[in-house]
Amino acid sequence: MRVILLFFSFLGIILTSQAQQISPLAPLPSSKQLKWQAMEYYGFVHFNMNTFTNVEWGEGKEAPNNFNPSALDCRQWARIAKASGMKGLILTAKHHDGFALYPSKFTSHTVAKSPWKNGKGDVVKELANACKEYGLKMGIYLSPWDRFHPAYGTDEYNKIYAKMQKELLTQYGPIFEFWYDGANGEGPNGKKQVYDWPLFHSMVNKYQPDAVQFSDNGPDIRWVGNERGYNYETSWSPFNKDEIYPGFPNFDKYRNGQENGSHWVAPEVDVSIRPGWYYHPNEDNKVKSPDSLMKIYVASVGRNANLLLNIPVDTRGLIHPNDSAAMIGFADLRKKGLINLINPTNSVIRVSSTHNSNYSSKLLTDKSINTAWAPESNDKRAYIDLMFNKAVRANAFMLQEPITLGQRIKAFSIEITLESGEKLTLNGKTIGYKRMITFPEKMVKQIRVFLEDSRAQPLISNLELYRIISTRNESLFH
Q1: Which of 178, 259, 290, 322 could serve as a FRET partner for 329 with CA atoms 20 to 30 Å apart?
Q2: pTM (2 decimals)?
Q3: Whole domain around residue 122: which residue ranges?
Q4: How confident is the model over 88-110, as pLDDT tens digits?
């Protein structure tokens, strides 16, 4: 009898413990999607035949001898990317014109036919080695559209593209992201291609199962819906990916994701540091400033997306000094501005309720995305109070959800009490992995966050408060 009582007592403890845990809310991110999201910021390198012909989209008729960088140095790219805080680099291994930056066996339009290194060069290999040396992750862009290949527009081309994928996925080490392009125009024979997406996806899953794949509908991460450097106020990682396809004409209807989407497909913001994606000499003085890049960061990483910043490498094969200066200046702004002003010595946090000790308000400042505060399930308008002993100068507030348990928050508001007693109210929609709310720089005495609406019991993982400054030592936000 005693054994039976002990068993049921032990079982009761297990069931009680399980009852205390808040259940995940599907869909959920995979482990590789979580690792990708944690990268936050990485680079795109547009360098190819277009660099030398001074166009954005080549026609596939360009002579290979056009490609001849005078001082190509992928170590310089990696060194600058690392210094700027990027976590990886994605290279345009083949753009729409069909010219490959490596000696592929499945097309004759490659660096092997160029005068660069007497046809013995391989840009993909050089960048892979440089990324390894500088501790960066390597990604591949391979446009399915090919304006050169004679097989384009036939079933055979899908097999050729898959074989090129295999080359890139098996010869250059780990790949963190494989980037498809939704462009699909006519090939040299005037035909368009019906892409075999299941085949393409299977190649990456087979040879680089830890890599995420990007396109309009994923399958792992998706296009944000613009190339101007921002995500939208409402941004759901849940996404009905089976309803659309790469190049989908009505993508605007899907750009915000879907509150009850079927799959987890978080957005990526792709934007160039210059007006164009490829290098053009007349854009040397049109490089985005560090201030502009900081605003882009807040509107991308700060709106539940990752930032993919493009650097157009010049005809020498080097990152131009103007681009490099902007990238390093941007890194300096982040270093100085993204300092959390909340600490135990200057502030106190109080909450409307707590689900249980596993979801304590102390977890709001532990910097872990795997822990969270949760209010009681019957708390109809849960809130977090952040009170400062002495007012602090700030202009941005950051919140995170523990996305391992799903995305939940549908709407929230922030009431800021200033040192003067004046109140400032800000409204937000979704949160997701990370959400930054900016406001005119003020002396802040108290912040109250109301969780207005959610798909399920809300969870908040982290809170941070910043004063983001500009290169002119002025507030970025007015």
Answers
A1: 178
A2: 0.95
A3: 31-337
A4: 999 999 999 999 999 999 999 99
